Amino acid sequence: MVRFRRIGLPAALVVIPSAAMAQNVIDQIVGGFQSASAGWEAPLQTMAQGTFGILAMIQFCWGMAKLTVRRADFSEFTAELVNQIMFLGLFFWLLTTTTTWGPLIIKSFRQAGATASGTAVLSPGDVFNAGVSIAQTVLSQMSIWSPAASAGLMLAAIVIIVVFALMCAEMVIALVRSFFITTAGVLFMAFGGTMWSSEIAIAVVRKVLSVGAGLFTLQLILSIGTNFIQQWVAQFQDVTAISVLTEIGSAVVLLAVSWVIPNDIASLIGAGAFAHGGALWGAAAATAGGAVAVGSGALRVATGIAGAGTAAGSAARLAGAQMSRRAALSTAPSSTAGRLAFLTGRTVSNLAGAAKDDIGRRLSGQSPRRGVAGFRLAANMRQQREEL
């Protein structure tokens, strides 16, 4: 089992935001969307009521016209009038109170999740804060005396940060979506003025319920999963390669669960609240790719050193094969000093020749521009040794 030594890297060298600062930034983003969307209510409400009035007049006139054509009696006119009043009255009430009942429904779902899980209502900043805390615990194991192990721990911390940032983004998207639905959705509630377009208004109500159900499920999942990961991190005493991979794997599993389950629950209502599709997955792939690229930069030094050592070893082994061939042809130096000088000179010559051939192939396009140079040189000299 590969073990990483317990290390103590100075906190000043750990480039990661404090948990409190990260939480404040995330919550300020959500608060900014909420404040901005609140200013849309008054103008949209005026427009929506005007549209509703026109549609309601069409609906009422159509109902009365049908009764007139049928030469309905007074009782039928009365029944139709009551039906129209109840239908239009219900949708008009939903229209004028969208910004009241919408946030209440979503808040109730979130509170239900917090009550069921026995925790406080999670905010996006709380989720990202948990990821920062876990990453800081992992980074605290780093040391300048163990560069390879430290590079692995840094990569693990970056992956954990990215995973929790994506879960935080999931909650931010759901909350911002709720702000848009309960404010901008007022305009679509105006289509409740006729029976032909009332399905649009009903879809707004259904969407509010689905967002609330998704946040309810997300609250349960993150409260359970974050506690599990924090417990594992608390036991992060004897750092091994397996323990680091376990932290990364558990975080990725939690991310997958937080994306799939809430949308399944929300789809029970008929509208997926978390169906971001390729957009969020594409952003996740781009972000994770960037994080891995940053982490890979920390690993390049150790990889380059390993590649150089491999190339030097291959050059020495090729020099030994060349010496054996000279010996078979009775042209090898007879003295020990001569043999040592030959091996040393051929080792340097082999390295220089392999580097020259590699540069030539890359400039001519005969070799792909990828991989560590040391390993490419080693492969080249290994092929030459096999040919001998």
List key phrases describing it.
single chain, 388 residues, mainly alpha, disordered N terminus
Molecular structure report:
The chain is mostly helical and 388 residues long. It folds into two domains: 266 residues, no CATH class; 86 residues, no CATH class. 80% of the residues lie in helices and 0% in strands. The chain contains twelve helices and no strands. Helix 2 runs antiparallel to helix 3 and helix 11 packs across helix 12. The longest helix is centred in the C-terminal third of the chain and has 51 residues. The two termini are 38 Å apart. The relative contact order is 0.10. The N terminus is likely disordered.
Give the distance, in angstroms, between the N- and C-terminal Cα atoms. Answer: 38 Å
Q: Please estimate the helix content.
A: over 70%
Major sheet: size, sense and barrel closure?
Answer: none
Indicate the mean pLDDT: 75
Order of helices and strands: HHHHHHHHHHHH
Uncertain segments of ≥5 residues (pLDDT<50)?
A: 1-15, 294-306
**Which structural category do the helix and sheet elements fall into?**
mainly alpha
Give me the Rg, rounded: 34 Å
Task: Please identify the oligomeric state.
Answer: single chain
- Please report the number of helical segments: 12
Please give the number of β-strands.
0
Number of domains: 2
Work out the strand percent.
under 5%
Overall, the morphology is: elongated
